[in-house]
Design brief:
Shape: globular
Helix content: 40-55%
Oligomer: single chain
Structural class: alpha+beta
Number of strands: 17
Largest sheet: 6 strands, antiparallel
Distance between the termini: 22 Å
């Protein structure tokens, strides 16, 4: 797990080497163990790397790494590197290190650009062929690791974090108002666009090739779209085997590994899987909100005792340095984020870093296995109607209505299916926040529409969620963990599990009024009943509405400030009225204000100030 930074000049101008090396230091938090810049082709190419040592801690594994005719900078982990190393050894390849970096490069030498189909892991890398004068870049299938880039006729710049590009060229500090406008309305963050004009993301599952000063991008990974005829018993067995192996691969490390633990199904599934092959002491980290009705610590503490984990409660006090903490988070995100859950996660990582360097987490299960039942259940019911399975439709509706509001489920479904102009109407009439956004935030366009080809209505929605909302969550997971030099590993993002899930019948996702049915059934023999029988999906609940309702003066001090007013992107009268409204209510007005506050802090960090820190 590291940080990468590269610069390719197309007009034979030399890279400013001193500035490049200085800029690299802005992402040293991603790699505190070693930093190096390499200049090639008469200084027209620069490759920079900061290293967080996880596998093979020796100096020989540092980067940029020369492997035969190649130079590589790489961020991530290829978890099946041992198996690939054995396969390559049988083909005659020899190795000088124990690192997965060397395996990655020799896999490219052996299989070419198709090497990525052999990788089980998370990655963003660039391999420069010093003989062929070509560069091969890739981002992992689902976007766990970031790859940002700027491209014009003269140059190609890429990096793990945008701030290093801005440090090299401050002229690129220009807001992308379209991305910001989309975020304010629907908290999006999965597009190829960033919050900076002309700085883009390489989308998940895409490769990028630089050859003869030309850049080409293509998609190499596509989701499974054919459903299998498989019995439930066979599916349970296969799910269990894949998931436990995915967890086992992600325990490969030469540094201490811990887990983040909530009171929910997913993080507990990770812990339960670890205990199938590992009984070593393991530290767990859980957010604790004293006095909050949805606090999950008491459940997590039972899980700590059940699996003999060394529990570390992290008491969350939102009152403590809220704006300062959020500013630091936004600096590392380089954008806003959809969820206020980012605040407790920031503090969890801060504590975890004191004892571990790697954390296993349960991210990715809900989008893959229909965990957000209020959002996915309507699509399941539509599938039953589509197939004329009326008996199953009414039975499922009755079961779901025992635990969830049918009205809420249908409204969520409509929200996802409605065209843009009707969603805007909902914000005007019901949530009453659309009129707050004006000036350059008034007009916007959704520019990322992922392709979802499954014949199943439910599976199409799961694929859409996997390519949109989840990518946003992965972005903040990477940025915030790396802010503390921590590597976050996600067993539910194993591509074998994703492909397996996308081939299953709809009835293996939602049954008996619960989501994630296949996960519950496959792992129930290793999970305690109090976890497996729980039906409510809380996400990562935080008392933000209540906090903002009690801290309106703090909101007013920042959001009604002259600096904010001069931006001409918020209607100040309507914003003031909104702040004074009932924030602690079901409309989650606090969530909208969290986004508006994030936008203002982002402008202060990246646009107002030339030297953010």
């Amino acid at each position: 797990m590291c940080g990468i930074f590269g610069y390719f000049s197309f007009d034979n101008k030399k890279v400013n080497c001193a500035r490049f090396e200085q800029s690299l230091q802005t992402i040293v938090h991603r790699g505190p163990n070693f930093q190096k810049s390499l200049f090639l082709e008469d200084d027209s190419i620069a490759l920079g790397h900061v290293r967080l040592s996880i596998i093979d801690l020796t100096d020989e594994a540092n980067q940029p790494m020369a492997v035969d005719k190649y130079q590589v900078i790489y961020n991530g982990e290829i978890y099946n590197y041992i198996e690939l190393k054995n396969e390559l050894s049988e083909k005659g390849y020899t190795f000088n290190t124990r690192s997965d970096t060397e395996v990655l490069v020799k896999a490219y030498d052996c299989w070419g650009e198709d090497c990525v189909s052999k990788f089980n892991g998370m990655w963003a890398f660039a391999i420069y062929d010093t003989v062929g004068k070509t560069t091969f870049c890739s981002r992992d299938r689902f976007g766990v690791k970031p790859f940002n880039y700027y491209l014009d006729d003269d140059k190609f710049i890429f990096s793990s974090e945008i701030k290093v590009i801005l440090a090299y060229d401050s002229n690129l500090r220009k807001p992308n108002y379209n991305s910001i406008a989309v975020y304010c309305r629907e908290a999006g963050g999965s597009s190829h666009e960033t919050w900076f004009e002309n700085i883009n993301r390489l989308l998940p599952g895409h490769n990028l090739v630089v050859k003869q000063n030309k850049v080409s991008i293509y998609r190499y990974y596509h989701y499974q779209n054919k459903q299998r005829d498989i019995s439930l018993d066979e599916a349970k067995k296969e799910f269990q085997e894949i998931f436990i192996d995915a967890t086992k691969l992600r325990m490969r490390s030469d540094v201490p590994v811990g887990v983040t633990l909530s009171g929910g199904h997913d993080s507990t599934s990770v812990v339960a899987s670890v205990r199938q092959f590992n009984n070593d002491p393991i530290n767990s980290y859980t957010a604790q909100f004293p006095g909050f009705k949805n606090d999950e610590f008491s459940t997590a503490e039972k899980t700590n005792q059940h699996y003999k984990l060394d529990g570390n409660p992290v008491v969350i006090d939102l009152e403590k340095d809220y704006v300062a903490s959020l500013s630091k988070i936004i600096y590392h995100l380089e954008s806003g984020h959809s969820s206020d859950a980012i605040m407790p996660l920031w503090r969890i990582y801060d504590q975890a870093k004191k004892k571990v360097t790697v954390v296993l987490e349960g991210q990715g299960a809900d989008e893959l296995l229909a965990g957000y039942i209020h959002a996915f259940a309507p699509f399941y019911l539509l599938e039953k109607l589509k197939k004329f399975q009326f008996g199953l439709f009414f039975k499922s509706l009755k079961q779901l209505s025992k635990n969830y509001s049918v009205k809420t489920m249908m409204l969520m479904c409509l929200r996802l299916m409605l065209p843009t102009y009707l969603r805007s109407l909902v914000r005007v009439v019901f949530i009453k926040n659309e009129g707050i956004l004006e000036g350059k935030l008034r007009d916007f366009e959704y520019r990322h529409k992922p392709k979802c080809d499954s014949e199943s209505v439910l599976l199409r929605e799961l694929q859409r969620s996997h390519q949109m909302g989840l990518v946003n969550l992965l972005h903040y997971g990477d940025a915030i963990s790396m802010a503390f030099s921590l590597e976050s590993r996600l067993p539910f993002m194993d591509y074998r599990l994703v492909e397996f899930a996308m081939s299953l019948p709809e009835d293996y996702f939602i049954a008996n009024g619960k989501g994630k049915y296949i996960q519950r059934e496959a792992l129930k023999h290793i999970l305690p009943d109090y976890i497996n029988d729980e039906h409510k999906k809380l996400g990562f609940p935080t008392p933000t509405n209540k906090f903002f309702a009690e801290n309106k003066e703090m909101l007013k001090e920042i959001l009604l400030d002259e600096r904010t007013k001069k931006r001409n992107i918020f209607n100040m009268k309507k914003l003031e009225k909104y702040i004074h409204s009932d924030l602690d209510n079901a409309l989650n007005r606090g969530g909208f204000l969290f986004r508006v506050l994030s936008v203002e802090l982002w402008f202060r960090l990246f646009i107002d100030e030339k030297n953010s820190a």
